[in-house]
Amino acid sequence: DMGFIELMTAKEIKSLCSQIMRCYASNRRSSKRFRLVLIDLSEKGADEITKYIPDWRKWGIETASNFFIQDIPKTSQRYLSADSSAELLDLDQHAVYVLGGLVDHNRFKNVCFEKAKSHGVEAFCLPISGNVSLSGSKVLTLVNVYEILLSYLEKKSWKDALEESIPKRKLIVK
Question: Is-contact 108 7, C-beta < 8 A?
């Protein structure tokens, strides 16, 4: 979800672009892949991405100027937000998983969750608490969440996917 460009500083936008590059690279390396679509992408947002990733349009990443992807029913969308109390238990191959493209170092609480609610989209958090212990916030970066989802697709184990993809400095080893 690229609808947060206006909230971010130049440094945060640069970080977001770096994370988009890493998501794209992880997707290409994975044996099971996601369809990458940058939704709610404004002209300004596309210009910002181009500033940091000049060739990104050649990568085959799809874009949508609004929040919903035309060929996907609204009821098939799932927004991932650390602020949701509903845990994502499995991945549905027919669903679309929306990740908030917001780098804010926790300045904006509940922004992604509230956006999902305002669009009538169910929001879920990753099943972190029952699988791993974190040393700090359960808020993860875009690329961490993306890599967790890719890993889960392959391993079908939240515990393994979380342990593999969350930075070791955030994990508490029992």
Answer: yes
Give the relative orientation of helices 10-29 and 142-155 as an angle to the nearest 10 degrees: 10
Give residue for tokens 């940058």: 38
Residue 106 confidence class, pLDDT cut points 50, 70, 90: confident
As a whole number, mean pLDDT of residues 8-23 equals 97
Q: Could you report the per-residue pLDDT of 145-163, keeping only the tens digit for each?
A: 999 999 999 999 999 999 9
3-state secondary structure at position 170: helix
Tell me which amino acid residue 161 is.
Answer: A
| pTM of the predicted model as reported, rounded to 2 decimal places | 0.93
Rounded Cα gap, residues 115 and 123, in angstroms: 10
| Catalytic member of 1, 71, 92, 104 | 104
Arithmetic mean of pLDDT over the chain: 94
Helix (H, G, I), strand (E, B) or coil at 65: coil
Two structure tokens written together for 14: 């640069």
How far does CA 121 lie from the centroid of its chain? Answer: 15
- Is 160 catalytic? The answer is no
Task: Count CB atoms within 10 A of the CB of residue 39.
Answer: 21
Which tokens sit at 18?
A: 């770096």
- In a 13 Å sphere around the CA of 52, the CA atoms on its Cβ side amount to 17
